[in-house]
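Late entry, iron/sulfur cluster complex.
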Amino acid sequence: MIAVVVFDKTFSYEIHSLVKAFYPMQDVKVYLSSEEIPDNADRLVLPALPNERDPLKRRLYSFLSEHTHKTLPWGTLTGIRPTRIALAGLYAGKTEEEIRAQFRYEYFTSDEKILLSTNIAKREKTILDTMDVRAGYSLYIGIPFCPTTCAYCSFASYPLAKNESKTDAYVTALIRELDYVADAFSHKELHSIYLGGGTPTTLTGTQSERLLNAIEERLDVQHLREFTVECGRPDSMDLEKLTVLKRHGISRICVNPQTFKQDTLNTIGRAHTVEDTVRAYTLALEAGFDHINMDLILGLPGETTEDVKHTMEEVARLNPDDVTVHSLAVKRGSFLHRKLTEGEDFQRADAPDEMMRTATAYANDICCTPYYLYRQKNMTGNMENTGFAKEGKEGIYNILINEEVESIVALGAGAISKRIFYIEETDTNRENAPFSVRIERSENLKELDLYLARVDEMIERKKALFD
Ligand code: SF4
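Prediction complete; structure with ligand written out below:
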């Protein structure tokens, strides 16, 4: 364990994130110099640091870089969305050179990541410029049931076998929340719907039909640009369910292999085969879907760059319309995190940046180029999650939620609604920029039984946020 010794804890979060980025395999804790430090910890005494966040991070980065003889591709960028910096620059009328200089000198970002961020921001801006995000909203609906629980999962997810008896009541609760949305958002344009989870296709065809009918009956969909259903687990899909989705106008679905290495699927508890993935993808085509996404994870336990290559060859063979490449993040609450804190370890990604380059090259080969990007804490190799899409096949909801430019009302256990308050700008260059915002959130209870019992209270929470 690394004990970082500081004289002031004001910026301990920023200090922790940056030290952790330099020492990804180690447990890092920040201590005040007056606190007792465990004997077995390696002490890291920091130099005097400035009292402002960004200068502090730059000084700390230089110190750690000298200390470890390493540089980080994203430089000091922790806790900030890189594409948001680039997008804000574009909306403020900055030139690309000015944006590049900002990344280089303020955040010490590598040229490769600067190019990635600015290219994505330009693509996002092209899409956002076609939408009036101030007049609109998006809808998220979470279905918290899964066939089994994946080892890295930290979402609201309950094994279907044990909770099947609650699925009807769950759909009823969602429809109750939908009644509120229909009433409160009738003056707004609904731009995108995302049915995620969990695994939405754990619902039966009849239950899906009931939910989709309720959406159609209550909400005005004339401005709807996208309706995604994250089917997710291939072992939850059949032709009947996919046909119901198609009939109700779902425009984008996700079939998520995560990897095409069977041993890894067994290790991470996915309980489906690589053949199931191919079968589900083929069924989706048969049902008539022309926008299919695939999610992958790099850095899964025991996987090497060769395994990523194999996975990408299989993905390229299926030729989806968009691919999201995640870097494994071991989050608190997951089985993997528990195992790690109990002292068990797994073979970590040998070369995370090489894995990402391999995945990128294969995605590019099927004409999928980056369109959104986000980073999380504790990601393998301090990398990123990147969405690649063919032209015109971008996931619009992904852009809206990541750039936090449009309010999202979220239904279901553990779902978090976000209200965006736009701050008026006086600078005419920024008149239409959706980037000066303040965000407030309201969270639904994550525990399934509590959510079902207290759904009216979840609606009251949303009223307090949106009304
Ligand atoms: S499919 Fe997703 S939500 Fe379900 S257990 Fe796996 S990671 Fe969690």
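The chain has 17 helices and 16 strands. Will revisit in the morning.
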